[in-house]
Amino acid sequence: MEVIIMKDYNAMSKKAAEIIKSVVLRKPNCVLGLATGGTPVGTYKELIKFHKEGKLDFSKVITFNLDEYISLPKTHDQSYFYFMHDNLFNHINVNPENVHVPDGMAEDVETFCKWYEDEIKKAGGVDVQLLGIGSDGHIAFNEPGSSLASRTRMKTLDEQTIKDNARFFKSEAEVPRYAITMGVGTILESKELLLIANGKKKADVCAEFIEGPITSQITASALQLHPKAIVVLDEEAASKLKKYNYYKWVYENKPKK
Ligand code: F6R
Fold first, then answer.
1. By CB count within 10 A, which of 50, 159, 187, 234 is most buried?
2. Are strands 2-6 and 62-65 parallel, antiparallel or unpaired?
3. Cα 154 to ligand 1 centre (Å)
4. Are 135 and 143 a contacting pair, CB within 8 Å?
5. How far apart are CA 242 and CA 251, in angstroms?
6. Ligand 1 pocket check: which of 13, 39, 41 to mutate, most ligand atoms within 8 Å of Cβ?
7. Closest approach atom of ligand 1 to CA 67
8. What is the Cα–Cα distance from 117 to 90, expressed in whole angstroms?
9. How do residues 6-35 score in pLDDT, each as one tens digit?
10. Are 51 and 94 in contact (CB under 8 A)?
11. 95 CA distance to ligand 1 centroid (A)?
């Protein structure tokens, strides 16, 4: 696992966007795995900026999102479908036919999940998967106890996740209790993983998944099993790391010529 520590949220977002940009430039028809939540908003802003500056073309890019709440229609402003259009897709030239977000209103969830997995395979697999991390250590909605071999399926959300995500809803009671999520096994099949995290609130869990044992209690620790996993943290999220000498990338302190 390559751990890169950036000064703050903006620098973390820029670094993550640079990594995604390099994949799109190398392979214009690449498959991007995307995440929602507060963390990737800055990364998406940077990608939009690259596109508006004419530096990034998404016309051939295929996308797959990690997860979606069950019971929220696409038009609900807290659905991940809505989030992705609001924060990224509406501002770039991605072909709507190439966009995949799990369907939270699917009548037959099991059949839908199998179809989603098949679509990822048909597209040739995910080239780079962007991930956030929950304060309970989840990646996507793979809550503590999820099998590290799990596939796309329905998952019950943890109490902690419901509390954490209540900030996006009018009240905690409104947070859906179930979601469709890619499994840890699905995520591990991506050619490259890119996990981003920022802020003091994520410091404990980042130390646990990077320096602790691999455990289904912290599903992000499965990144230790992946041959090409990059973790980009801001200094606050990295503040509880203590075991190794990590790479610190400090744009601001680069020697001036
Ligand atoms: C969202 C997702 C979740 C979030 C995680 C962190 O698609 O898969 O795992 O990445 O809950 O959320 P934020 O970024 O809001 O702290």
1. 187
2. unpaired
3. 16
4. no
5. 23
6. 39
7. 7
8. 25
9. 999 999 999 999 999 999 999 999 999 999
10. no
11. 25
Q: How many CA atoms lie within 13 A of 124 on its CB side?
A: 10
Neighbours of 208 (CB within 10 A): 18
Ligand 1 neighbours by CB, cut-off 6 Å:
35-39, 66-67, 132-134, 138-140
201 CA: nearest ligand 1 atom:
16
Query: Three-class SS of residue 98?
Result: helix
Amino acid identity for residue 225 in this structure: L
Q: Which residue has the tokens 């780079």?
A: 128
For ligand 1, the distance from its centroid to the CA atom of residue 256, given in whole angstroms, is 37
Atom number, ligand 1, closest to the C-alpha of residue 37: 15
List beta partners, residue 131: 195
* C-alpha 247 – ligand 1 centre gap (Å): 24
| CA–CA dist 192, 33 (Å, integer) | 10
- Give the active site residues: 67, 136, 138, 143
Note the pLDDT tens digit of each residue in 64-122: 999 999 999 999 999 999 999 999 999 999 999 999 999 999 999 999 999 999 999 99
Give the single-character DSSP code of 183. Answer: -
Q: Residue 219 carries which DSSP code?
A: G
DSSP output for 102-148: --TT-SSHHHHHHHHHHHHHHTT--SEEEE---TTS-BTTB-TT--T
Assigned token pair, 106: 């699917």
pTM: 0.96
Quick check: 125 and 182 in contact, CB under 8 A? no
CA of 80, closest atom in ligand 1: 7
